[in-house]
Amino acid sequence: MEEMFTILHFILIGYLIKLTAGTLFQYTPAPEFYPAPYNVSFHRGDVAVLSCSIYNLGTKTVVWRRIDSSFPLTSGTMTVIEDKRIQVAHIEFKNQWDLTIKDVRPEDDGVYECQISSKDRTVRRIITLNVVERKVEIPEINITEPQYIERGDKIVLQCNATGEYYPPDEIDWFRNGHKITTNITQGVQISKDYIFEKKTFTSVLKIDRARMQDDGTYVCRASNMQITNTKVTVLNAETSPIKRGTAGGKLTKTDSSVSWSSSSQLTCNYINMLNIITSWILVNLYYNS
Ligand SMILES: *[C@@H]1O[C@H](CO)[C@@H](O)[C@H](O)[C@H]1NC(C)=O
Ligand SMILES: *[C@@H]1O[C@H](CO)[C@@H](O)[C@H](O)[C@H]1NC(C)=O
Ligand SMILES: *[C@@H]1O[C@H](CO)[C@@H](O)[C@H](O)[C@H]1NC(C)=O
Ligand SMILES: *[C@@H]1O[C@H](CO)[C@@H](O)[C@H](O)[C@H]1NC(C)=O
Question: 225 C-alpha to center of ligand 2: Å?
Fold first, then answer.
C-alpha cells in the first residue's frame, strides 16, 4: 500500500516538473501588428480612429503617443493625458487597441505611434493622421433655360436640385401655379432620379405635343425649400407672323452669338419692350431651323 503511494507520488512530481518546465522554457512568439492603413484622413469634428491590432501581445502593454513626444497619450486601456476626447477602443478577442479621438481638430493632425511596451521603442507602428476641413456644399437648384417651342413640338425641361448632405426627397413641378403630374393620355411625363454621389435629385418633365395652354411659367420646387422657374413660350407657327421661312435668312453670325446666359434678362424685357423679345424669337427660330 505504501509502495503504491510512492509510485503515485513520483508520477505526480514528474508531471509537475514537466508543467513548470513548459511554462519556464516555453517559446513565446514575438508580437506582430495586423496590417492596417498607415495614412488616414478624417473630417474635423468626426471621430478619428487609428487602428492598431496585435497578435501575440501576451502580457505586454500597448502605449499610444505622438511621435514627437515621449509622453504617452494612453497606456493599456487607460488615457494618460488630460483629454477626454482620447480613448482606446480595446476589443479583447480581436486583439484591437485602436486610438480614438472624438471631435478631431486640426491640431490633432500629425504622426502617432502604437507601441508595445518594451525597452526597445522600435516595436511600434506609425500612423499619420490628417484632419481635413469638411467641404461645405451649398444646396442649389438649376432648371433648363427658357424655351421657345412651336405648337405640337416636344417640351423637355430638366431640374436638378442638390442638398447639403443628401439629395432632396422630392421635386414638384407647377405650370402657372398648378401642379403638374404624369398623365400619359395627355403625353405628360415626369421622371425622377437620384444621383447620390452628387447629392442631386434630378427630374425631367416631358410634354409630347405642346399645346397653347402649355405656355407659361414652369416652377420646379425641391423638398428642401429650393425653388426656381423657367418660361416656356409656345408659338403658334401657323398664325404667327414670324414664320420659319422668314426667320433665318437675314440673320448674321454676329446676331446668332447672343449668349444664352443673357436670356433671363431678355425674359424680363418681354414685359416692357416687345421689340427685343421679337428679335430673340428670331434668333431662336434660326437655331431651330
Ligand atoms: C496621406 O494622405 C494625405 C491625404 O490623402 C496625402 O495628402 C498625403 O500626401 C499622404 N501622406 C503620405 C505620407 O502618404
Ligand atoms: C442636370 O444634371 C445633368 C446631369 O448632371 C446635366 O446633364 C444637365 O445639364 C443638368 N441640367 C441643368 C438644368 O442643370
Ligand atoms: C447648376 O449650375 C451651375 C452653373 O452652371 C453649376 O456649376 C452647377 O454644377 C449646377 N448644379 C446642378 C445641380 O446641376
Ligand atoms: C389625364 O388627363 C385627362 C384629360 O385632361 C383627365 O381626364 C384624366 O383624369 C387625367 N388623368 C390623371 C391620372 O390625372
Answer: 19
Asked whether 202 lines ligand 2 (CB < 6 A), one says yes
Q: Tell me if 66 sits within 8 A of 114, measured CB to CB.
A: no
Any residues with CB less than 8 A from the CB of 273 and at least 6 apart, and which?
none
Question: How confident is the model at residue 163, as a pLDDT?
Answer: 92
Rounded to a whole number of angstroms, the distance between the first and last alpha carbons of the chain is: 121
Residue whose CA is closest, atom 10 of ligand 4? 183
| This prediction's pTM | 0.49
Contact 144, 157 (CB under 8 A): yes
CB atoms within 10 A of CB 131: 19
Contact 37, 23 (CB under 8 A): no
CA 11 distance to own-chain centroid: 70
Cell of 42: 478624417
Say if residue 235's pLDDT is above 70.
yes
- Assess whether the C-beta atom of 41 lies below 6 angstroms from ligand 1: yes
pLDDT digits (tens, 9 = 90+) for 57-67: 888 999 999 99
Q: Please tell me the residue having the least CA distance from ligand 1 atom 13.
A: 39
Distance CA 212, CA 238 (A): 12
Report CA 109 to chain centroid distance, whole Å. 22
Q: Whose CA is nearest to atom 12 of ligand 4?
A: 183
Q: Which domains are seen in the chain, by residue range?
A: 32-132 (2.60.40.10), 136-236 (2.60.40.10), 241-289 (no CATH)
Tell me if 143 CB under 6 Å of ligand 2: yes
Mean pLDDT, range 67-79, rounded to an integer? 93
